[in-house]
Specification:
Layout: H1 5-21, H2 23-28, E1 35-37, H3 39-61, H4 65-83, E2 85-87, H5 100-122
Helix pairs in contact: 3-4
Length: 123
């Protein structure tokens, strides 16, 4: 089920706040909005992995360890290339020049108010 427009905006605000508060953790979790999956990388990586499997099988068939090891390396490189994320040039978001503490407290207070409204609605 896709997120509503309001939920998407809320999620974007939360991601932005995470990047402002702890950029090292946000980058380690892979939620960097400037990075995305590239179809080109996936296709080329899958083709490379298939070529590596083919080379590996050829190496086993002709009993040549060098060809088998080369096939394994090509296969690993293809998988690595397929799982790489490409950087989206110019898609980096910059924070607002205002005080981050002020916007954070109002943002958090609005989230707390919404949570309280939901809790009251359930009772």
């Amino acid at each position: 089920m896709p997120l509503s427009e309001h939920e998407q905006k809320l999620l974007e605000q939360l991601e932005k706040q995470l990047h402002e508060d702890d950029p090292k953790f946000a980058n380690s979790m892979g939620s960097d909005p400037g990075r995305s999956w590239s179809t080109r990388h996936v296709v080329i990586g899958v083709l490379g992995a298939l070529a590596g499997i083919f080379l590996l099988l050829v190496g086993v068939t002709i009993q040549n360890i060098f060809v088998g090891v080369l096939g394994f390396i090509v296969m690993g490189g293809g998988v690595y290339f397929a799982t790489m994320r490409s950087s989206g040039g110019g898609k980096q978001r910059s924070g607002s020049p205002g005080k981050p503490g002020k916007s954070r407290s109002s943002f958090m207070s609005s989230l707390e108010e919404r949570w309280d409204e939901r809790r009251r609605g359930e009772s």
